[in-house]
Design brief:
2 copies of one chain form a homodimer. By secondary structure, chain A is α+β, with helices and mostly antiparallel strands. Helix content of chain A is 52%, strand content 17%. The structure holds a DNA duplex.
Chain lengths: 109, 109
DNA sequence: AGTCTACATGTAGTCTCTCTATATGTAGGC
DNA sequence: GCCTACATATAGAGAGACTACATGTAGACT
């Protein structure tokens, strides 16, 4: 289902999934899976490092919690992260428009 | 205009631009630029190696020609390349659908 | 008691592709 | 003579996604 075409879009996905509620890594993976209708199965070795990277650059911050004896690191968007998400969204639209116009021959008008 | 988000989509772009006519590297770069409305400026250091890679895996083959004293290597789709293009197209649709459904919150219906 | 699955996080190392920078050469206009 | 457009090519850097591994708790089932 996924090649390494995700490259450069992981940030957008992670920020987007955290837009309305803070989540921990495992829940983020499930949310991505669910929201994409099962198409996105992102491995833990991709998600956890990416979350840390986003925290390092100030788009997320995190907090530890213990729920039912299990430790969770819950991530939430920072204001900078929210701004970055907006940028990612418009970049995504520009990206799909550009590639799409090359890939899909249609519409000369 | 372009980050390295192209990663994994170059093949699709190159195959697509060669679908209806064989072209040489330089012309391919111009075609990409034109078809995308100027959004895609792909450097030569990306295109030439990618073309050779696609030739190596059998999706393209090439032929030298001299036009006006200048040497050109003209690439054309092989049958395998044509099949690969079809695959790339459906992969692209699946990809945009998946990412889009995560990124754009709308439409619950 | 032992095993298995779901929950939960993390890192080291690999892989592969895109980009930057550089090199080389022709043709034509100024 | 110089500059721009045309035309191809490669070496090296850089970055991020993946595989595989390591670790541990909770609960269900046998």
């Amino acid at each position: 289902m996924n090649t390494d075409a995700l490259r450069g879009h992981m940030d957008a996905l992670l920020l987007s999934v955290l837009e309305h509620e803070p989540l921990h890594g495992y829940a983020i993976i499930e949310a991505l899976q669910e929201r994409s209708g099962g198409a996105l199965t992102v491995p833990t070795g991709t998600v956890y490092p990416a979350l840390r990277r986003l925290e390092r650059v100030g788009h997320l911050d995190s907090e530890w919690a213990t729920v039912g004896g299990r430790k969770r690191r819950t991530y939430r968007l920072t204001p900078a992260g929210r701004a970055a998400l907006a940028g990612e969204r418009s970049a995504w639209r520009a990206f799909t428009t550009a590639i799409g116009s090359v890939l899909e021959p249609h519409r000369t008008s």
